[in-house]
Specification:
The structure holds two protein chains of two kinds.
Chain A lengths: L2 H10 L6 H18 L34 H5 L5 E2 L2 E2 L7
Antiparallel strand pairs in A: 1-2
Chain B lengths: L5 H9 L5 H15 L6 E4 L1 H17 L9 E5 L26 H8 L3 E6 L33 H8 L5 E5 L6 H6 L3 E4 L20 E5 L2 H11 L29 E5 L9 H16 L3 E5 L7 H16 L18 H12 L2 H14 L5 H21 L5 E5 L15 H5 L6 H6 L2 E9 L5 E8 L4 H14 L21
Parallel strand pairs in B: 2-3, 2-4, 7-8, 7-9
Antiparallel strand pairs in B: 1-3, 4-6, 5-6, 5-10, 9-11, 10-11
The chains are: A mainly alpha, B alpha/beta.
Chain lengths: 93, 494
């Protein structure tokens, strides 16, 4: 990967990578990708991917309200709030 | 008092040799005197600990006390603890105080355990040395120039320095077993789904599992008895009977079939480690077990598979840290994009950024099949190797890590060298099996080495039994780190 590729990825992941770090991270990521390219050696014809060790499926529950309002407690950690809303820089003109 | 195991303390507390309050005060004083040498705690909760200890003493007097009542423990800093900072070793959560307890924290509190505080760890559990922590690296009590291992490095250092009797850790690629090995302790990763992940900050959701780090298999069994539960709130929690993990500790292991994978004894394994592992296997033969050479042919693919799957899952799990609802937010964001990008740039350390980027790449359009889907196919092949092996043997034995604890700074500039540390522990997580690390001796330069045992799905009781029997016949687990002697002043005749 080149710097441009890393920057494109960083944009997707919503992280700034500053110029000081860019060289180092590009090298690191290229090494990691070389490491994981070993996967291509494996013969995986007709092998089902395994997303869960026991091939479990998502358990469902009844559509009933079970949670109580904990907004105040949960918003104690919020950087900026007003009237119970989360404040961010203006999004819509 | 700090020399006792949980099992020994249970007797002492009930015989009123000392109270839980005295025991807790003793540990708090030790932490004050000694932890600057190890940096193993991020938060010490003195007031809460003493309150819990008082309540424990009342329960002990009434005679209604469970095993862990009054026992001082500590929690890895990725378990949510109500009212107490939960940082995950990261600047991103350096201001985060949960309003609830993780299920395992609640379980241990209900069992009467006294939490002394929160332990140091690699940032967001990503690491094998504790060096990526925002709170600085933790040091190995056996040799403070060396790492304690990771990511549960602080939890291991705490127990090795006798700054708590046992701790909780988490294991996604070896993060309980490897620090336990480096610090001369017994650490258990339960089967995926055995212990609830609710309230445990997620790194890789299909691999993460919480477990105990303790001085003995018996103590680990006592901890697991409290920690394990079926939890509605964790949809990956498995509703399966929970045995009393202590009940079968003394079962005979005559005729136990131990599988020894040829792939675990190839190039790259330190000589001292190989010697000690082979000596441990010989010991098991003396106890009546039989050794069987086996093959786990896809072992070499575990590292590449893990370093696709774990970062991919991490990139999804860490996308919630966006500076909006909780956690670190950058100053003066220009707009929403700037808020996201700078909060995450400033809040995350380098290793976390690397893994998020690798993960995003593996999941991105055009690469998903070649990387993520391929890795999950390989994952099934790795699991199948174990399933086949377990038709012939009862447990699988081998090293935990290719070497004893390495020096601080030795691998921190080379991520791939660091990743190779995990080669023997990763397969267990990929397959979702249970695994334990137990001390089997010291290297020629006096550093602990761990023996790893891997068990079948939900066979923790058997694993603990096999480990406990080793500890009845050897005394490696009784050796303690040579801590500098400020503590002797605190130590009365106990």
């Amino acid at each position: 990967m080149k710097h441009d590729d890393i920057n494109a990825l960083a944009h997707l992941a919503r992280i700034n990578i500053n110029d000081d770090l860019l060289d180092n991270i590009t090298d690191n990521i290229n090494s990691i990708l070389s490491l994981v390219d070993q996967l291509q050696q494996a013969n995986t014809d007709d092998v089902e991917p395994m997303y869960h060790p026991l091939d479990a499926t998502q358990r469902l529950r009844a559509d009933e309200v079970t949670e109580t309002d904990k907004r105040e407690a949960l918003q104690a950690n919020t950087p900026a709030t007003e009237a119970g809303l989360f404040l961010v820089p203006q999004v819509i003109e | 008092m700090h020399h006792y195991t949980i099992a020994e303390l249970m007797t002492s507390l009930r015989n009123k040799e000392f109270s839980s309050v005295e025991l807790t005060q003793h540990y708090l004083e030790r932490i004050k005197q000694l932890d600057s040498q190890f940096n193993s705690y991020i938060t010490v909760s003195s007031e809460q600990a003493l309150l819990s200890a008082q309540q424990a003493d009342q329960a002990l007097t009434k005679g209604s006390a469970s095993d862990l009542c009054g026992i001082p423990i500590a929690h890895k800093d990725l378990f949510c603890t109500q009212g107490t900072l939960t940082s995950c070793g990261s600047k991103m959560l350096s201001n985060f105080v949960p309003s609830y307890n993780a299920t395992i924290v609640e379980n241990l509190a209900n069992a009467g355990a006294v939490s002394l505080g929160k332990t140091n760890m690699d940032e967001f559990a990503m690491g094998s040395s504790n060096e990526s922590s925002f709170y600085g690296t933790s040091k190995n009590p056996w040799n403070t120039d060396c790492v304690p291992g990771g990511s549960s490095g602080g939890s291991a250092a705490v127990v090795a320095a006798q700054l708590a009797v046992a701790t909780t850790g988490s294991d996604t690629g070896g993060s309980i077993r490897q620090p336990a090995s480096f610090c001369g302790l017994t650490g258990l990763k339960p089967t995926y789904g055995r212990v609830s992940r609710w309230g445990m900050v997620a790194y890789a959701s299909s691999l993460d599992q919480a477990g105990p780090i303790a001085r003995t298999a018996e103590d680990a069994a006592i901890m697991l008895n409290a920690m394990a539960s079926y939890d509605d709130k964790d949809s990956t929690s498995v509703d399966i009977d929970k045995p009393d993990y202590k009940a079968s500790l003394n079962d005979s292991i005559k005729g136990l079939r131990i599988g020894v994978p040829e792939e675990y004894f190839q190039d790259g394994l330190d000589n001292d480690v190989a010697t000690l592992i082979n000596a441990a296997l010989a010991e098991y033969e003396k106890m009546g077990a039989t050794l069987h050479p086996i093959s786990l042919p896809h072992t070499h693919l575990a590292i590449p598979a893990y370093y696709v799957i774990a970062p991919a899952e991490a990139s999804a799990n860490l996308s919630r840290f966006d500076g909006v609802r909780y956690g670190y937010r950058c100053d003066d964001p220009k707009d929403l994009m700037d808020l996201y990008k700078r909060s995450r740039e400033e809040g995350f350390g380098d290793e976390v950024k690397r893994r998020i980027l690798v993960g995003a790449y593996a999941l991105s359009a055009g690469y998903y099949d070649a990387y993520y889907r391929k890795a999950q196919q390989v994952r099934r092949l790795i699991k199948q190797d174990f399933v086949d092996a377990f038709t012939q043997v009862d447990v699988i034995a081998g090293p935990v890590a290719p070497n004893p604890a390495f020096g601080i700074g030795e691998k921190s500039n080379d991520p791939v060298a660091m990743y190779l540390e995990d080669i023997y522990t990763l397969p267990t997580n990929l397959a979702g099996l249970c695994g334990i690390s137990l001390p089997c001796g010291l290297s020629s330069d006096n550093k602990p080495v761990g023996l790893q045992l891997t068990g079948n799905y939900f066979a923790e009781a058997k694993l603990l039994n096999v480990a406990h029997q080793f500890q009845q016949h050897t005394d490696h687990h009784k050796k303690t780190a040579p801590i500098s002697n400020a503590s002797n002043k605190l130590n009365s005749n106990k």
